[in-house]
C-alpha cells in the first residue's frame, strides 16, 4: 500500500513510500511518472514508510522519510562521476531519537535553513537542523501526551509584513495574548521559526523557537476537535495579515482556523459538506452528511501554493476542493472520486 506521494519543487520528480518499506523516485515526463535512468528504489527502513518530504532545491536533491520503525532518514542524490552512469541516492542522516513510529516529517521554509520537523507516536516532536559546519543538531521535546500525528510549518514571511513594517523586539506591543507567561519568540532576520502539530489528544498546538534561549516553546493550543487530529496544514502567506490553518480529524470534521492579525486570537470554522450533497431524503442507498461533518474520517488536508484553495481527502475515497467566497464562507468548488 502506498501511503504518501510528493512532487518536488519543480514538479519534475515524484517520490512515493509504501508498506513494503521502500521509497521510489520517479521522473515526471509530460505529466506521467516514469522510472527512467534517474529513478531509484531507496531501501533503509525496517517498517512501513508513512511519509516523504522534499527539501527546497537550494539545498540539493534531498528527501526526508519517516517510518513505523521510529527513524527518520535524510537522503541525498549524489551526481555520477561518469557520464555513462546515473546519479545515486545515499543516506546522509539517520535520526533515531524517537522510541515509536514517526508519523510525519515536514521541511521548514527554505528561508529558515535546512530544518525538518518530525512527529512521533511516542508523544514527542523533534526538529533536525543542518548547521553551517555541516553537522546536524536535534531538539526533541514533549508534544502531545498520547501521540503526535502531523506537523506543518508556518510561512517564513511574517503575517502583515506586506502592508506594515515588522515591530522591533523591544516594542511594548510584543506580548503573547494567548499565554502571557511566554513572550512570543523574537523574529530572526529570515522570519519566525514556528510550526503546528496535530495530536491524538484531539488538540492542535503551535510551537515557536526562541533565539535567545535556543528552545522551542508552546505558544498556543487550539481546541475544537472531539477525536484524534489526523492532519494539520498551515496555509502559505505572502505577507497579508490573515493566517489560516486547516485541521482534519477522526471526528469526520475539517476546521479552518483563522487569525486576522498577529496579535489576534484564532477563530474556527467547520467545513460543511452537506449543502454539496445531492442525496434525496429517504432515497434508498443514500445518506445525507450531518451538517459540519463528512461521511467518513478525514485523513489529509493540503493547501494550494497560493493558499486560497484547500484539498480535503476523506475515507470515503473522495477528494474535495474548498475555497472561501467573498462573504467569508467556505464552499466546495470541486469533487473528485477516486
TrEMBL record:
Localisation: Cytoplasmic vesicle, COPII-coated vesicle membrane; Endoplasmic reticulum membrane; Nucleus, Nuclear pore complex
Sequence segments annotated as region (Disordered): 165-193, 265-287
Listed GO MF terms: structural molecule activity
Keyword check for Hydrolase: no
Cellular component, GO annotation: COPII vesicle coat; endoplasmic reticulum membrane; nuclear pore outer ring
Bilayer topology term: Peripheral membrane protein
UniProt-listed Gene3D superfamilies: YVTN repeat-like/Quinoprotein amine dehydrogenase (2.130.10.10)
WD repeat locations: 42-85, 222-257
Primary location: membrane
Family stated for the protein in its record: Belongs to the WD repeat SEC13 family.
Function, in words: Component of the coat protein complex II (COPII) which promotes the formation of transport vesicles from the endoplasmic reticulum (ER). The coat has two main functions, the physical deformation of the endoplasmic reticulum membrane into vesicles and the selection of cargo molecules. It also functions as a component of the nuclear pore complex (NPC). NPC components, collectively referred to as nucleoporins (NUPs), can play the role of both NPC structural components and of docking or interaction partners for transiently associated nuclear transport factors.
Protein name stated in the entry: WD40 repeat-like protein
Amino acid at each position: 500500500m502506498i501511503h504518501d506521494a510528493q512532487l518536488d519543487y519543480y514538479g519534475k520528480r515524484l517520490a512515493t513510500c509504501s508498506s513494503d518499506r521502500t521509497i521510489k523516485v520517479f521522473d515526471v515526463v509530460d505529466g506521467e511518472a516514469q522510472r527512467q535512468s534517474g529513478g531509484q528504489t531507496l531501501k533503509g527502513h525496517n517498517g512501513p514508510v508513512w511519509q516523504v518530504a522534499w527539501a527546497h532545491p537550494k539545498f540539493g536533491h534531498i528527501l526526508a522519510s519517516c517510518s513505523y520503525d521510529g527513524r527518520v532518514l535524510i537522503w541525498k542524490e549524489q551526481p555520477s562521476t561518469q557520464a555513462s552512469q546515473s546519479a545515486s541516492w545515499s543516506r546522509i542522516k539517520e535520526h533515531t531519537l524517537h522510541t515509536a513510529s514517526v508519523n510525519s516529517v515536514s521541511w521548514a521554509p527554505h528561508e529558515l535553513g535546512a530544518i525538518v520537523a518530525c512527529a512521533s507516536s511516542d508523544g514527542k516532536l523533534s526538529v533536525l537542523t543542518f548547521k553551517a559546519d555541516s553537522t546536524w543538531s536535534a531538539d526533541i521535546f514533549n508534544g502531545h501526551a498520547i501521540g503526535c500525528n502531523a506537523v506543518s510549518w508556518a510561512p517564513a514571511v511574517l503575517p502583515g509584513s506586506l502592508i506594515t513594517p515588522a515591530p522591533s523586539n523591544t516594542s511594548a506591543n510584543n506580548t503573547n495574548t494567548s499565554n502571557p507567561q511566554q513572550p512570543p519568540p523574537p523574529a530572526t532576520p529570515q522570519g519566525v521559526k514556528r510550526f503546528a502539530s496535530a495530536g491524538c489528544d484531539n488538540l492542535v498546538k503551535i510551537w515557536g523557537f526562541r533565539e535567545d534561549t535556543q528552545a522551542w516553546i508552546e505558544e498556543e493550543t487550539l481546541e475544537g476537535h472531539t477525536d484524534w487530529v489526523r492532519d494539520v496544514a498551515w496555509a502559505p502567506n505572502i505577507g497579508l495579515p490573515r493566517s489560516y490553518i486547516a485541521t482534519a480529524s477522526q471526528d469526520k470534521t475539517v476546521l479552518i482556523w483563522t487569525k486576522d492579525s498577529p496579535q489576534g486570537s484564532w477563530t474556527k470554522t467547520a467545513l460543511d459538506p452537506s449543502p454539496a450533497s445531492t442525496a434525496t431524503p429517504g432515497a434508498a442507498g443514500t445518506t445525507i452528511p450531518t451538517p459540519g461533518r463528512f461521511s467518513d474520517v478525514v485523513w489529509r488536508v493540503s493547501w494550494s501554493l497560493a493558499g486560497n484553495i484547500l484539498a480535503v481527502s476523506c475515507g470515503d475515497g473522495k477528494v474535495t476542493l474548498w475555497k472561501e467566497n467573498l462573504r467569508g464562507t467556505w464552499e466546495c468548488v470541486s469533487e473528485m472520486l477516486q
